[in-house]
Amino acid sequence: MIKRRISTSILAADFSKLEQELRRVSASDLLHLDVMDGIFVPNISFGIPVIEAVSSVSQLPLDIHLMIREPSRFIGDFARFKPEFITVHYESVTHLQRVLRQIKDLGIKTGLALNPHTPLEGLRYVLDDLDLVLLMTVNPGYGGQKFIPAMVQKIKECSRILEGRPIELQVDGGISIDNVAALAQAGANNFVAGSAIFQAAEPNLYIEEMRSVKSAS
Ligand code: DX5
Ligand code: ZN
Fold first, then answer.
1. pLDDT, tens digit only, all 217 positions of the chain
2. Among 34, 37, 63, 131, which one carries the catalytic annotation?
3. Nearest ligand to the C-alpha of residue 148?
4. Cβ neighbour number for residue 208 with a 10 Å cutoff
5. CB–CB of 138/31 below 8 Å?
6. Catalytic pick among 37, 77, 172, 178
7. Closest ligand (CA of 8)
8. What's the farthest any 2 CA atoms get from each other in the chain?
């Protein structure tokens, strides 16, 4: 069984005091960095300089979620930070397997993200090149959105496809202590959360709770 990990999305942090904010979430297993280009998603977030700042003040492994068109153009730029994962969207690339190889060849683990409506089918042909599947549980573009309930069934189906392989199943969007147990039960083992963590009175404690809450059975 793959160990449960919490990947904190800094999108919900107060960027005017980023170093302090990162200390409030130092119990995270990973730092999730949402890069948005205003084209693939209807919002622009941050890019290289912010990631540079984050990596200079935090030792946590980085989990870079690229919500940008044709991310192959920038893989080299993000690889510089030696993140644990670079995740690209199924819907944003023309030659998926080539991009995954590009990431792997730089010694970085690969992630593949699927929008809520994207069928799981295409996954089957790139499993050998994957370390993580990210199932979006909201439409990407913004933090603070509501979890889409139909995604529970998709998580179950995806976890069947991944069975027996060392591939993490990450969920992202509307995740909190209230749904982590049910989603773990459905098969997710890597949880991205932004608003829920940063809005908690004690984010580091909240992260510990998310990591340890028992799956419903
Ligand atoms: C949404 C991003 C998420 C976002 C999650 O497009 O991919 O990572 O930060 O935010 P919350 O946890 O607030 O739903
Ligand atoms: Zn994300």
1. 899 999 999 999 999 999 999 999 999 999 999 999 999 999 999 999 999 999 999 999 999 999 999 999 999 999 999 999 999 999 999 999 999 999 999 999 999 999 999 999 999 999 999 999 999 999 999 999 999 999 999 999 999 999 999 999 999 999 999 999 999 999 999 999 999 999 999 999 999 999 999 986 5
2. 34
3. 1
4. 13
5. no
6. 172
7. 1
8. 44
Q: pTM here?
A: 0.98
Phi-psi region of 102 (alpha: psi -120 to 50; beta: other; left: phi over 0): alpha
Q: Which two tokens stand for residue 115?
A: 């929008």
Say yes or no: CB of residue 140 within 6 Å of ligand 1: yes
Residue 131 is a catalytic residue: no
Q: Which atom of ligand 1 is nearest to the CA of 145?
A: 14
Tokens 């793959």, residue located: 2
Sign of CA dihedral 3, 172, 36, 166: positive
Quote the tokens at residue 27.
């119990």
